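Reminder: ligand-aware prediction takes two inputs, not one.
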Amino acid sequence: MIGIIGGSGLYKLDAFKALERIEIRTPFGEPSSPLVVARVGDKEVIFISRHGEGHIYPPHKVPYRANLWAFRELGVNRVLAISAVGSINRRFRPGDFVLIDDLLDFTKKRENTFYEGKYSIPLGGEDKVSKLLKEGKVVHIDSSQLFCPQIRAVMAEVLENLKLSYHTSGVYACTEGPRFETPAEIRMIEKMGGDVVGMTGYPEVVLARELTMCYASVCIVANPAAGIAGYRLTSDEVISLMKQKEEEIGKIILEFLKRLPDKRSCGCDNILEGAEV
Ligand code: HPA
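Here is what comes back for the chain with hypoxanthine:
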């Protein structure tokens, strides 16, 4: 099952028929929004709004663990996230799509793992995740390929086919927010190799990977990052760009689901092999 996480400006999947809204509680609290099962062509997907309906969760308060755990309970094993970003790389223009392939983490105070060793919540089930939690294991997952190569490759075909302006790689820097960055911070991130900046990619990707899910993110450049355009950044600019992109996002999702093979051939499901201490 494929789960879709909608970021700023994307609070529901208007293009698709909603079949069911599921309210769920998890051992990690309440997810950001009800989960909506939607039909897209001949497939079903599960959608969640990252910031909640009405945009009530700022980036540092999004219940990332609850969202991913709710996905797990509903059988999601592949996650596609749609996120607005600011661009640092001068080749990336507002409106471009970026299939990020690596991450820099500058967050400060977020729950970033399910595996808390002796403090883990022991949860039922028979799979590897449940076993590690029940046994209170310490787990270090590999982060050398956090973003699913199979989903990224299919998504590149989709963007090419739809003749959209896109980039097949990029380093995503995740800042704590909720304020936008300073120009000096952006210069620092640029020196460290960051191409785009956002506030929600981490720990979302890592939590999905800890649950053995595939995860990939389609980032949409909403604005040049602080100090690059030389003007003040506003949330209005970000949301308005995302609204303009809504129709394209609908087309992308439809085409992506048509093309994505049912079989996972990426190896993301093996991430827990050898990860426990
Ligand atoms: N910085 C951080 N997050 C963002 C930005 C930005 O410039 N644009 C959209 N999300």
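The helical segments are 64-73, 128-134, 149-161, 183-191, 201-210, 235-244, 246-259. Residues 84-86, 175, 180-181, 197-199, 222-223, 225, 233, 238 surround hypoxanthine (CB under 6 Å). We will return to this case in the review session.
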